């Protein structure tokens, strides 16, 4: 299987979505203090970057 630039961006998008969900889950279920808000904010940031990677597929 050849990895071209679109395949790399697709894998990067998938990995960032998984990490974003994990960070949001950590913030929601593990940390009940203010640190949970930080974990959730970083998880949302990962979603935003994954959205950019998804938008770049086919354009780079």
Describe the structure.
- The protein is mostly helical.
- The chain has one domain.
- 80% of the residues lie in helices and 0% in strands.
- It has two helices and no strands.
- The protein has helices spanning 5-30, 35-56.
- It is elongated, with a radius of gyration of 14 Å.
- The model has no long low-confidence stretch (mean pLDDT 90).
- Keywords: Membrane, Transmembrane, Transmembrane helix.
- The chain crosses the membrane at residues 7-29, 35-56.
Task: Record keyword descriptors for this entry.
single chain, 60 residues, mainly alpha, 2 helices, CAL67264-like
Note the topology.
Blueprint: H1 5-30, H2 35-56
Helix pairs in contact: 1-2
- Terminal-residue CA separation: 20 Å
Structural class: mainly alpha
Our estimate of the beta-strand percent is under 5%
| Number of separate strands | 0
Low-confidence stretches: none
Fraction of residues in H or I helices:
over 70%
One letter per element, helices H and strands E, the order comes to: HH
Number of domains: 1
Largest sheet: none
Specify the number of helices. 2
Could you tell me the radius of gyration in angstroms?
14 Å
Average the pLDDT over all residues and give the rounded result: 90
Outline: elongated
């Amino acid at each position: 299987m050849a990895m071209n630039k679109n395949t790399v961006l697709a894998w990067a998008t998938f990995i960032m979505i998984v990490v974003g969900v994990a960070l949001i889950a950590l913030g929601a279920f593990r940390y009940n203090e203010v640190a949970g808000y930080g974990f959730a904010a970083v998880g949302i940031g990962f979603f935003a970057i994954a959205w950019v990677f998804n938008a770049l597929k086919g354009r780079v």
